[in-house]
Structure formats: structure tokens, C-alpha cells
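explain this:

___
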Amino acid sequence: LGDMTPDDVLGLIDGHIAAAAVGAAMEREIFWMLGDESRQAPEVAADLDMPVEQCRFWLEHLANLGLLDRVATGYATSADARAAIVDSYSRETWSFLARSARDELPTVGALSQRLAKSRAPGPAVDERSADYVAKMRDNPDRARQFTRMLYDIHLPLAEEVARATPTEDVTRLLDVGGGSGVMSLALLRAAPQLKAVVVDIPTVCDVGREIAAENGLHGRIEYQAADFVQDELPVGFDLIVYCDVGGYTERLLRKFHSSLEPGGRLVIVDKFGAATGLPHPSRSHWALLGSLRNNAPQRIAAEDVENMLRATGFKLESRMLLPERVSRWSSGWTRIVATAS
């Protein structure tokens, strides 16, 4: 018998209430507000322009979840919340993640009824769907928030990729769909001789330049605004990194091959499903949401990508599961390395 109890199942059913309470706390920045000094519910309500009674019930629920402490002077951020929230990612990242989750509520709010409807399956699309590109292209503020959020959560992965990638013979790196350049920046820190080019859409590149300057590496990294699926890629690189982007096609892999010098390497990092058509377990919720919108993202196995690499002139070098980390964002990643023959 398993360890799950009826109470555990009831907790899952009620989980949307806790999720909403925590998401609101992220958006209202309550953990930062109560991080330096405790406050009574009426003070918090006044600062956030909330009804006092609703504010008190909200703070009580957060305390019951272990995210706030009840103290003599009111409520304070708990040690767990400080370690898991305040000291991990920035408040801007948490706020963006909370808003994104809130935006999904209309899609999943009537899931039982939606699952019962007869819906024609939509075509599989790559991770950088038209909706994603449009939102990032047309809304610079969203592009800034999204890009900085991804920089925050991908830092541990980038450092792991840099540790696992030999760069002694590499001088020119192409980071395709690299967003903030988080992968490139980690590799630049590890290899002083390396210079990088990041290809992404214009609004994302703008934010990437800011982040590179903040890291003191803007002189060694260039951001090239382009739609890498449609546009030509620059050439003459020793290494291409393609991390957490998806949308694998033979056409795209041939473009990678053309961008590499003979003997150059392609490093792919992604979370692959156990079989074609299945998502990685940590991404099953995204696959479900995509299916409800009739635009489920492409999900293929590592073997499928390797077959495409062989078909497009690459020689496979290795496949490895990167070391597991505590964070959901930095575990479950597979790295495939191939050489342009």
C-alpha cells in the first residue's frame, strides 16, 4: 500500500485555494513586506488597500501553510518562506510566476467539463509557439519580466551545463533561442577566451543586453535579433548551445550544422519524455494545459532527436542526464552532444 491518505487527496482537491492565496502573496509581495518587521492584520490591510477581515483570513491561511509566523506583534515571514521564497528568486520572478499561474485559471477552472467535450486535436507546435513569440514581441514589459524570470530560474542549470561542457578548444559560441544569454554567460565565466552570439527575438535581446552588462560581460557577448526558425543563422562557430527551446526539426538541425565549423559541436539540453508523444513528468501540467488549448507542445523522446541528428549530418558523441538538483527547475535535464561531421 502507498503512503497517500484520504486527507492527502482532500488536500489536492483544495489545493487551488492554497495556490491562489500564495499567488496573491507573491503579487502583493507580502513575504518581503513582513520580512523585516512583523505587522498586525489592520496595518497590512491598510497598506494593501484590502478589507481588514479578508486580509486577516488571508494571513491566517498563509500562516496555516507555514509561510507566515504568528507572533505577539502580528505576522512575520516564516523561516521556511524566507529560505524557499525570499532568498531564492527575486520578488519580480515570483510575481511573474504567480501572475502566469493566475492567467491559467480560466483554462483549468472547469477541467471536468472541458475533458468531457469532443474536441478535435490541434497540431503540435514547438515550444516557441506563435502565441509566445507574439506576447514577447508586442509587449516589451512582458518580455523583460519573462526573460529575467528565466534568467533567475535557469542559473543553476546554466552553471551545470558550463561545468559539463569542455571549452578548451572553443572560441566562438552560438546560443540559439538563448533568451537572456544565461547559458552563454555561464560558459563565458568558465572560459575567458570564449565569445558568444545569442539569437532571439528583438525585445528579448534588449533585456539580454541589460543582463550581460550587469554581469560585466557585455564586451564578450552579442545579441542578434532574429527569428531563428525562419531566418538564416550566422556561421563559423565552434559550439552551438540549444537549451530548453524545443521545436526539433531536420530543417533546423541542418541550419545548426551549417553554422558550425567542421568538427564543431552541438549541445542540446532539454527535458525529454520517456517515449514519443509523452512529456517529461515535470512538464505534464504544461502538456495538459496545451492540450486544452488545442496546441499541445511538441513532445519527443531523446532517441527521436538523435535520429534527426544522424539524418542531418551529425555524429553523436554522448547523452547524459545532468546531475539532479533540489529545484524543479534544475533537475531532469538531458544533455545530448553531437559533432558536425
About this structure: Residues 140-164 form the longest helix (25 residues). The first strand starts at residue 68 and ends at 71.
